[in-house]
Amino acid sequence: MKILLNRKTAKFLKGQVVTRAILVAVCIPFLLPFFWMLSTALKNLPQTVTFPPVWIPDPIVWDNFREAIQTIPFFTYFKNTAFYVVFSIVGTLISCPFVAYGLSMVRWPARDSLLLLILATMMIPFPVTMVPLFIIFGKLGWINTYAPLIVPTFFGTPFFIFLLRQFFMTIPPALPDAARIDGASELTIFARVILPLCKPALGVVALFQFLASWNNFMGPLIYLMEESKYPLSLGLQDYRSTYFVEWNLFMAASTIVVVPTVIIFFIFQRRLIEGIHLTGVKE
Amino acid sequence: MRSKSRTKRIMLLMSIAVFLVSFSLPAAFAQKSEVLFWTGHSGQPERGVMDQMVARFNELFPEINVKKVVVPGAETEIAKLLTSLAAGVGPDAYHLDRFTVSQRASAGILQSLEGYVPGIREWVEETYLDFGWKEVVYQDKVWGLPFDTDVRALYYRKDFFDEAGLSPPTTIAETDAAAEKLTLKEAGKLQRMGFVPWWNQGWHYTWGWAFGGEFYNADTQKITANDPRIVESFAWQKSYLDKYGMKDVQAFSSSYETQMEVLDPFVSGKVAMVITGDWFIGNMRRFGPDVDYGIVPIPRPAEFKEPTSWSGGWSIVIPVGAKNAEAAATFMKWYCGLEANQMFAEGTFHLPVTRVGAATTFLREEPGYKVFIDVLPYSQCRPVIPVGGVYWDELTAARDYVIYGKKTAQKALDDATAKVQAELDRVLSQ
Amino acid sequence: MPLTSRQRKNIRTGLFFVSPWLIGFALFLVYPIIASLYYSMTRFVGIGSPKWIGFWNYSFLIKDELFWTSLYNIMYYLVFAVPLGFAVGLGLALIMNFKVKEKSIYRTIIYFPAILPMFASAFIWLWMFNPQLGIINALLGYVGIDGPGWIGSPTWSKPSFILLVQWGAGGPAIILLAALQDVPRELYEAAELDGAGQWYKFRRITLPSISPVILFHVIMAVSGAFQFFDLPYIMTEGGPANSTLFYSLYLYRNAFQYSKMGYASAMAWILFMLNLGIAIIIFKTSLRWIYYRAG
User: Fold this and answer.
1) CB of C217 closer than 8 Å to CB of C89
2) Domain-located, residue C207
3) Is pLDDT at C206 greater than 60 in this prediction?
4) Domains in chain A, start-ordered, CATH in brackets?
5) Would you say A254 and A41 are in contact if contact means Cβ atoms under 8 Å apart?
6) Is residue C79 domain-resident?
7) Do B92 and B36 contact (CB within 8 A), yes or no?
8) Which residues in chain B are contacts of C240 at CB distance < 8 A?
9) pLDDT at B30 (0 to 100)
10) How far apart are the C-alpha atoms of C68 and C252, rounded to whole Å?
11) Of chain A's two ends, which shows fewer C-beta atoms within 10 Å, N or C?
12) CA atoms within 13 A on the CB side of B26
């Protein structure tokens, strides 16, 4: 009995050790690029080009961050990105719950087919519609403004609509029904009953929209022209081609754009993963 | 609770208001006396010097206000320019790579200057160097003014040459021999290459002309990229990959070729010779003041005795749909004139393109500049055809196919010839 | 059967709420797709009016060497990146599902690169892949392997991208993980009672249970692959020797750098049909392997 227990413990321990070893080994390639980015960002120039590579910078040059920011109109780019991010989130938060409400809280015949259609549109690659959209926005005089990037968010994004719809489906129908019996209008039910209940889901959607806007490269590339209107995604690209290939400054700049994502991610990590669970795609 | 939701609602309304206002704002600021000037020059020192030039113009011509806007990559992303013009928010003056002026003019994007400056045709011929004005004249009309120019030559590292007991090459054979001696390999990796012909300004045109080739026959309107001499120049470039190993040269190229400033492969000693332009003297001053280097004309096969080079440069044009073309023309005449030429040369080491400017520039007194001034009379310009940009892109693609071993020199250039000829025929037939 | 007033009211209410999306759908999707069919039959440079030229763009495309190169490149990418992405995603999901106390740390590490901006990843990997100064070849050097030229070599450039995008495999992995966790425990327990091994359980229970998620993942991965743009645009600009000139990159070039809006629209339509065709094939074949749980 004693031996058996020991063997069991040993097996358990071995299992734990092997499991952890696998996990750590898998994590290394995911961490290495970050390590290499940070390490390079803190090196002086000669150390970036030494062979074999220097792993831990010596001396550590914090000044690279200051220099990286000063070499380009970093704050202009940052301000533009913030403008884009904020208004695209506003647009998303206004339109997506609204549409999702119609797809979940109201019973009408074409509802589920419409949901399928909305999901199906997610499959269409952006390059398919890129040229005519550019021509339309051009005719509206919206080229070189953020309008082509922000206005469409006021008409709903399929993935977010779906996500919110999934969340709304978990709300007991008795809730809106009771309000209906009390004579409340659908708009009132939407704004007073449902919206307050779905704050967590709205948070997830806002977060995803933040990531989508912060990370968007192709949209700004197509629609914006003036350098002073660039968001960070384009600004940094321009930085590379025009100014230098001083890898340490370049990695310092990359670190700076990665940091907000890191912060947001760690604050909202739980919700983000819950949000993904919510989509489930089971039906 | 109530007041909180009201605050929220007010904030929402406010943000929508801000949102709407921010789109209409630019329109409210537009003024008629303003000349909107777009340039793709976003790097230093050109950018800062151009700011000073625009400020100087605004000071000299108080009735006009030039607003300079940096539009990176605008020249390569022509669709945005066209769409802005169609929507009426395009520029009045535009910085265009000069060799594409004829292409843009034939596409109907530019306004000819005849209406704005009387006697312009004679004036440009008198004012600008030959290759400069030839590039802005298309179908007997003037479509822009030359802004600056450049010339190409071979830079070599004196320190490396002395160390190896070599003297600077004048022929292709000497170049190959020197390159071989100056190439260093350590632990199986190339640490330094004597020469990489296609780096920097070692373009298809550079070597095609150096080998005595012709790219276009104006009489028959035929593209001649597969001229045997050009094919030979491509095959010669390929020989460097065969000699030093394609994989090694590729690894070396992708590590160092695009590095700039202090890490520029010539400045940092990764390559002993490089073809580049006169402006590079400015780079050497700023980033490699201690580097011991010299400049000689581009090497040619031994049978050619005359030096070779080619010149490009920028120009200022007025696009169709410009709201203030009259004032833009005034601006251009000053901006491409003697004073502006000199300001630009002093700040950036780019050669003036006005005859007087080129003859009197302080650059003549600069020790390294002698070679450039000497080869300037022999310098050529790229064919003035309505498909100049396409031709350039196709030649570049053909060159890449050859140096990456995807096609033979003959095949790559035959393909390019056929493709550009088809495009040219299409444009000419319209 | 006539609708009751209640039903009619519900339809009105439903349509009212979905109207923003319907308008957006018409303006930003249906109209552009139809318009691009029209533009694909014209020559249009962005200024002036489009000139009708019938099927000229399509016939020119067939003769365009670069069109075929870009199509080949994207199919190569698709054929390798999609299955590999799925395998890596599923592998990671299984690993992330290991029951250890600090599992959320590992999940965070694996998932995080997936939400990183592509443009930032591009910069980091440009530096990682540098053949002479980069860390990857340095590491390979330690174990005696002479690393390739990666994105600087026409042979290795596409495989480099296929490997690189796996850094973001945490995204699909987390979705697959969610699906794994929803597989009812009773199914495994029942199988264990029958003496089933690990492989049998994986093959007969896990895979069928998550098959709808797999279908979703594969469809999205295919359309994602057709949009592959940011990384090659920033890292290689289609080079070397056009080996990374992917379809959407060439489409972008035609539209915005050459201003051939008609020609680019023809490419867009071919892309649309291609994507639709592949999606239909996947759906059709999925009937054979997909398993919908009752209810």
Assistant:
1) yes
2) yes
3) yes
4) 76-279 (1.10.3720.10)
5) yes
6) yes
7) yes
8) 250, 254, 400, 404
9) 47
10) 15
11) N
12) 14
Q: Which two tokens stand for residue C264?
A: 């680019």
pLDDT in tens, B220-236: 999 999 999 999 999 99
Q: Which of the residues B71, B254, B255, B404 would you substitute to probe the C interface, choosing the one with the greatest number of C C-beta atoms within 10 Å?
A: B254
CATH number of C95's domain: 1.10.3720.10
- Contact residues, chain B, for A45 at CB < 8 Å: 262-263
Q: Which tens digits make up the pLDDT trace of A201-230?
A: 898 899 889 989 998 999 999 999 888 999
For C291, the token pair is 């398993």
Q: Which domain holds residue C97?
A: 58-289
Q: Looking at beta carbons, which residues of chain C come within 8 Å of B415?
A: 65
Please tell me the distance in Å from C202's CA to the nearest CA on chain B.
Answer: 43
Q: What is the CA radius of gyration of chain C?
A: 24
Are B254 and C152 in contact (CB < 8 Å)? Answer: yes
Encoding tokens for residue C49?
């009016």
Residue A187's Cβ-side half-sphere holds a number of Cα atoms within 13 Å equal to 3
- Residue range B240-284, pLDDT digits in tens: 999 999 888 988 887 887 776 777 899 989 999 999 999 898 888
Radius of gyration of chain A (CA): 25
Q: Spell out the domains of chain B, with CATH numbers in brackets.
A: 30-150+311-380 (3.40.190.10), 152-310+387-429 (3.40.190.10)
pLDDT at residue B176 in the model: 96
Taking only the tens place, the pLDDT of each residue in C108-144 is: 889 888 888 888 888 889 888 888 788 898 888 888 8
Provide the b/e sequence for B383-412 (b: ≥16 CB within 10 Å): bbbbbbbbbbbbbebbbbbbbbeebebeeb
Q: How many distinct structural domains can be found in chain C? A: 1
Structure tokens of C25?
A: 């759908």
**Residue showing tokens 């669709």:** B79
- Which two structure tokens, joined as six digits, stand for B403? 């140096």
Decide: C276 and A121 in contact? Cβ < 8 Å.
no
ipTM (interface pTM)? 0.90
- Test C268 with A129 for CB contact under 8 angstroms: yes
User: What is the mean predicted confidence (pLDDT) over C258-277?
Assistant: 93
The residues that bridge with C83 in the sheet, in sequence order, are none
Contact criterion met (CB < 8 Å) for A130 and C252: yes
